User: What shape does this take?
Amino acid sequence: MNSKDRFSEQQKAKVREIEEILKTFLPKEEGYQKIIMEAMEYSLLAGGKRLRPMLMQETYLLFSGGVKRKEDADALHSFMAAQEMIHTYSLVHDDLPAMDNDDYRRGRKTTHVVYGEDMGILAGDALLNYAFETAALAFEDRTADAAKVGRALGILSRKAGIYGMIGGQVIDVKETGHEVSGDMLDTIYKLKTSALIESSMMIGAVLGGAEDADVKAVERIAGNVGHAFQIQDDILDVTGQEEALGKPVHSDEKNKKTTYVTLCGISEAKRIVEEKSREAISGLKDLPGVNEYLEQLLLYLINRER
Amino acid sequence: MNSKDRFSEQQKAKVREIEEILKTFLPKEEGYQKIIMEAMEYSLLAGGKRLRPMLMQETYLLFSGGVKRKEDADALHSFMAAQEMIHTYSLVHDDLPAMDNDDYRRGRKTTHVVYGEDMGILAGDALLNYAFETAALAFEDRTADAAKVGRALGILSRKAGIYGMIGGQVIDVKETGHEVSGDMLDTIYKLKTSALIESSMMIGAVLGGAEDADVKAVERIAGNVGHAFQIQDDILDVTGQEEALGKPVHSDEKNKKTTYVTLCGISEAKRIVEEKSREAISGLKDLPGVNEYLEQLLLYLINRER
Assistant: This one.
């Protein structure tokens, strides 16, 4: 088996492991409000690469010496689930008629199409709230260090909010149809895409016992990965194959969207991806600890062809 | 000044104090995403009785011996603001076209009417997320006890979610136009109204240093208050004066809504309010500590005429 195939096998196994973890945190489907639990499960178990919990776990392992310490496992798992719930709620609300108005996602009907628009709004709210409820479970675990869990919770909330993911969505929504400057585009990418990648890796670092300076370094690495990831998205929209991507290409051009490709051309965009990628990997190598899978995962994210 | 007037003066002063606290937690209006900070402020500073943060602070004072301890003040204030943000986000989303479709609230245009439906959704999300960001600030305060703050955060999230406020909204939305049983009506009231009153008082108790058994007792008191409050609402819809209430009366009848009055008649509904009220006050008197203003506040909530 070559290294690419081996990585792909490992990745699949890890996705399966993460989905098992996610399932343990799903609320039981009971009570008069049962329909909301169904809608949450429908949204959360819609497939996907589970990148954010994976990045969290792998960054944790980098700092914990490759082992999941017994006293950290429950807290780590609850934050992995919480982060995926936050990512999922943002997709559910993004798909709403007043937002992107999408009827399908990953080949399945979107949540509001199945459960109605009112339940789509409430399911998103429920997932966001339940994310914090799930993360707060870590305080009930008496073996976990409450101050460390508190720090992780601060990062989880901040990067998902108006100075992170929501902030990015706000600018994106507000600027649709307007010309966007390079600085603004960078801000959108930083907030909309990088913020949750940053918090995933930072929380993994915090729970793994990283020093403050190393958490800062992890934030920079994740920022570069997120930025490169998003520029690669712009490139693939021009050079990619519709079949491989599973979504239409040239959509940015059709929507007259400002992207790195429209701003600085394909070859410059590729050069920037290359640069950010080098910075991320060199930052990773400077950290105390090694996780080869994490290095491959970051490279895969940046250089993916779909 | 009679005792009713004195209470009313005290209440006004306390509302002003709480609004000053709220303002210190509002995000600065800056950055490309500035519009979302404006929408959050517009929603949060729309007036109101500030009941939930007031109940939190007064319950805290009951357990702290009537003084705001220096080491608790920051944590208490951040949870008071967080709770009001959660209450406010629920109103913003409730008013959306796909939900109650209300253009006005307390005589002002609703958030989505002023900022657009997409920003209405995002402003609600932003307030909910920012609530947890604000509560998590308490972990940065090194004088605060992280385990205690963690317990408060668990209560804040749980009572706002699918086993609390959101759960109640889900049942309410789902059952609109259907016949509702007494048990289901109790569940809606318990979740939709009581849950946030419970968490407000419980968090105040936890931060004030209450024992587990006393936090449980506070939960029962708050449950009775919330229940009585909601039944009183049903009664006022039939007996109240439109002018005093500031909203149309007989709306439940027009909307064919099941209420305590339709289920068991006015006099029985009044008797239940009386009973719950007595239970709440007797529970309050059993707690270690005294807060006369809190007792008056609970009675005011239950027996209000508007």
The mean pLDDT of chain A is 94. The first strand of chain A starts at residue 104 and ends at 105. Strands of chain A lie at 104-105, 108-109.
